[in-house]
Amino acid sequence: MTDQGNKQAAKRNARPETTPEHVENPARPGLSRRAFVLGLGASAAFVAGGSLAACTPQTGAGTASTASPNANSNGTGNSPSASADAPDTIQAAAEKPADKQETKDADLVVVGSGIAGMSAAVEASRAGAKVIVLEKHTVTGGDSSICSGNFYCCGSKKQDELGYTDYGTPEEIAQFYFDQSDGDANMDICRLVAENGGEAMDWLVEMGCDFDKKPEEGATDRSMLSTTGGKGLVDTLIAEAEKNGVELMMETRAVEVIMDDGAATGVKARQGSTEYVINAKAVMLACGGFDGQDWSKELYAPGAVGWHTFSSPSNTGDGIELARQAGAMVLLKGGLSQIHLVGHEPLPLNDELSSLRMVNTGVFVTDLGYRCANESMTSQFDYFTPFVQSGRKKFFIICDSQLPEKRLELVKKGVEKAVVNTADTIEALAEEAGLPSYPLVKTVEKYNALCEAGEDADFHKKPEDLQALTQAPFYAIQITPNTNDSFGALAISTKAEVLDENRQPVPGLYAGGTLGNAELFYLRYAVSGASLCMGTVTGRIAAQSALEYARL
Question: Which SUPFAM superfamilies does the record cross-reference, listed alphabetically (predicted)?
């Protein structure tokens, strides 16, 4: 390990604790894309046409996420002061005067230390390349290190050894991804991830990682889980990379892709008051999404501003702006991976009350008392669209005492923890929950009438879930939406090349992981484990392509 690495090693151990579990989403109700675009995508489309400098939000529009720790305030991370006073963009970081400048040389410079970036670093260093990895945060791994470690694939040796062989074919998985995107995905990228996922898992296992089937009712044989979580996967990759001589520079933020005659030849970066010019034969961007701070969500997905987030606070769209400097095509779709939690000060996901967020027989309402969704949705990811379209930040599930015994026990525990309100009438419940009484009463009356008719003409809820709310006491389960990933960034090829506006490769520039997932996802997350699989696959392919380009 380098001296720089030794100085920073102690800062990599602490990680934010636990993370959302994604769930498979085999069926989703339809949605009006036009309605969604009118509610959110227009702002995102505007951003796609210009740079951050041209459309920076109003000062103080967003606040820092409270779900993860912030980096320090030396200009390399997402400091509390930066989030509160002004958006901490790469342009703002680049404009700060540097006290000194240093130059480094590498075959490949990787921006970001998550699963995609570290997979690229390991793949390239194993081939003998000199690799430098830049990480702007105080801890490594980004979202990869705070996720559960789900990995969705087929055909791995590990699955076969464990007897989990009912996983179908790569073509079936590719079609599944495409269908889950409502047809708004790149089928070539769907196939790329599906066809290489099993090999990617075996590659991780060969390094010492281990997996077993996801221990969840209904999980398919494609759904595997790292026995050491996402953090264990990233830590294993980092150990392998450093063994191979990779230099990992912490609290070092890339602020510019160096271009020479249309080709990427390195990056400029800031570490405190030092500017680094890192010359390289190829550049790989793997610096995550844009939902880590409110100011960046305002730029790329304004409908989610004010939501909590599980994501790393360092996810502020840096990769989008770095790639724009190189003339890259940006595919902003406005999508975010969303998970809703119980409580307006959300309880941890692993709390036993977390399951109350999916009470299908209840009524989902906004904090204005109006019904907002089809409560029969099979996945919590389906709630992203109605949540955004409602324009609200707080929600409730209204239910009565006609619940299964175990579920009712949890509801009562929720009352004790002050995340569930209760009363003997809907009017009194509204007062207890801080909801407007008249709209809530009328919402419940309308819903009960639909239940009596046996058909939900408003939201098309499953008939078997239509249960009138008539038995006191009544309950209001507090719900808060959270983000844990973002969709929409760079167009990439099947060689993980960053593409320009004509969908031609930008020479020497590669991307993977979340930065390339606009080609795989649309508005909502397809299935638990798709992101780690895609990150590993695209990271390895980016390194292979970069080595081929550099003739190494």
Answer: FAD/NAD(P)-binding domain (SSF51905), Succinate dehydrogenase/fumarate reductase flavoprotein, catalytic domain (SSF56425)
Q: Are residues 194 and 301 in the same domain?
A: yes
- 515 within domain boundaries: yes
68: DSSP letter: S
Contacts of 183 (CB under 8 A, 6+ apart): none
CB 511 within 8 A of CB 319: yes
| Stated pTM of the model | 0.79
One domain for residues 330 and 359: no
Q: Are 250 and 138 in contact (CB under 8 A)?
A: yes
- Residue 165 and residue 524: Cα distance in Å, rounded? 27
Q: How far apart are CA 241 and CA 235, in angstroms?
A: 10
Residue 190 pLDDT class (50, 70, 90 cuts): very high
Cis check for the bond before 473: say yes or no (omega within 30 of 0).
yes
> What residue numbers bound the domain in which 361 lies?
336-483
The number of folded domains in the chain is 2
Give residue 450's pLDDT. 97
Higher-scoring residue by pLDDT: 72, 507: 507
Query: Where a domain ends, among 459, 483, 507?
Result: 483
Of the residues 461, 483, 505, which one is the last residue of a structural domain?
483
Looking at the structure, tell me whether residues 322 and 342 fall in a common domain: no
pLDDT digits 0-9 by tens, 387-398: 888 889 899 999
* Rounded (5°) CA angle 52-56-58: 170
Kindly state whether residues 444 and 414 are assigned to the same domain.
yes
One-letter amino acid identity for 474? F
Cα torsion angle, 342, 353, 521, 514, sign: positive
For residues 167-191, give the mean pLDDT.
95
d(CA 483, CA 335): 10
User: Do 452 and 352 reside in the same domain of the chain?
Assistant: yes
Which structure tokens are listed for 204? 């991780």
Place of tokens 């006191």: 472
For residue 415, give the nearest of 480, 467, 356 by alpha carbon.
356
Shared-domain flag, residues 262 and 346: no
Q: What is the CATH number of the domain that holds 183?
A: 3.50.50.60
**CA 380 to each of CA 246, 293, 314: distance values in angstroms, whole numbers, following the listed order:** 39, 22, 25
Tens of pLDDT, residue by residue over 73-117, are 333 333 333 344 578 899 999 999 999 999 999 999 999 999 999
145 and 253 housed in the same domain: yes
Residues 347 and 326 in one domain: no
Q: Which DSSP string do the residues of 203-235 spell out, in sequence order?
A: HHHHTT--EEE--STT--TTEEEETTHHHHHHH
SS3 438: helix
DSSP 490: B
